[in-house]
Amino acid sequence: MSDDQNAGSRTLLIVDDDPPFRIRLGRAMESRGFSVQLAEGVSDALTHARAMKPAYAIVDMRLDDGYGLDLVPALREVRPDIRIVVLTGYGNIASAVSAVKTGVVDYLAKPADADTVAAALLAGEDEAPPPPDNPMSADRVRWEHIQRVYELCGRNVSETARRLDMHRRTLQRILAKRAPR
């Protein structure tokens, strides 16, 4: 399908295993002119993709029944010109590079607002999406990373401190504070 045909089709598949987020994002994208289909996982997404052949997709990185990046090639088989944005709450450089190598148009950290997601989906081929209006601060990104490692270590402060190469008491002070803005 040519870019002109793709531009005329505003079909969007949203794949996320968090029902409140999926529904809220779906409504927001509908209000921005997209015809939305919601899917909660990889198998559900493939079923919907084969039926609707969406022009756009928003895919969560981690799903209950699989990994969102594994879905990208399957969506491209259904529709080679599909524009895909990956959302993740577990962002890191390695997964961002993997996402770009699979052909996604953007990789956004959750929570991403609907305007940012829509801008990424609709950006031209050689046009980078605009920077977010209100990006996370460096302190917030650091805090998110520490929280993620803490959760992955089963909320074990000593193990988390060892893996982050920081003193245990320093980590305890960070964990006791509220998240920075």
TrEMBL record:
SUPFAM superfamilies referenced in this protein's UniProt entry, alphabetically: CheY-like
Top-rank taxon: Bacteria
Record GO biological process: phosphorelay signal transduction system
Pfam family, one: Response_reg
InterPro entries linked: ActR_PrrA_rreg, Bact_response_regulator, CheY-like_superfamily, Sig_transdc_resp-reg_receiver
The entry's keywords: Phosphoprotein
Modified residues (4-aspartylphosphate): 60
Domain Response regulatory residues, every copy: 11-125
NCBIfam families: ActR_PrrA_rreg (NF033791)
Protein name: Two-component system response regulator
Organism: Iodidimonas nitroreducens
Phylogenetic classification of the source organism: Bacteria, Pseudomonadati, Pseudomonadota, Alphaproteobacteria, Iodidimonadales
